[in-house]
Amino acid sequence: MPYSRWQALALELITALSLILSSNMTEHFWGQLALRYVDKYPGEIAAAIIREQGDRSSGTWFAENSAAAHVLQACVEKTLRTYGTLSSRIFLPESGRIC
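and the corresponding structure tokens:
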């Protein structure tokens, strides 16, 4: 199986409802897998966690009480680092212009 198919499978597992809401060792392994892909897919992973946080049809679940909190924090930090790097390259503070 080509590497890109493995990545697609990993992202499918990371964003799966049942795994995001899992507990015990499944939650632990989900978190470890998700953290490995935060650098590549921070938006997709964060969106999946937030989607499940907002969905009350499967019961009450709070991201802050799970491995998802740590993963979500890593996604936010990655996004902020990326934005900071990009903004420093395209925004000229002295002129207030974007180049």
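(Above: one complete record from the training split.) The two ends are 42 Å apart (CA to CA).
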